[in-house]
Amino acid sequence: MDADWRPALAASILLRHDKRRDADLLVMPERVVVLSGQAASVLRLCDGNRSAGDIVAELERRFPGAPVADDVTGFLDRVRDEGWLR
User: Fold this and answer.
1) What separation, in Å, do the N-terminal and C-terminal C-alpha atoms of the chain show?
2) Is the dihedral of CA 41, 73, 6, 61 positive or negative?
3) What is the C-alpha separation between 18 and 7, in angstroms, rounded?
4) Core-most of 9, 38, 52, 62, by most CB within 10 Å?
5) What are the residue ranges spanned by the domains of the chain?
6) What is the pTM for the complete model shown?
7) For 6-39, what is each residue's pLDDT tens digit?
8) For helices 52-62 and 68-82, what crossing angle results, to 10°?
């Protein structure tokens, strides 16, 4: 993953919180994905302004001692491969 990449959700995808289920969702034209763990926290930082490196640094600040760099970069790569990030 390129640390200078500025990830953002694809235009057709929305990140929403379902109060009834108390779950974060990625809402797509023909599909809904229920997010687990800290996935929504990571995706909320993907605003097109922050670089991938900035996102990792922010999460390392929030979760000291956690293996953020490997986990987040792998997650962002997988989500980009799915076409959910541009």
Assistant:
1) 13
2) positive
3) 23
4) 52
5) 14-82
6) 0.93
7) 999 999 999 999 999 999 999 999 999 999 999 9
8) 140
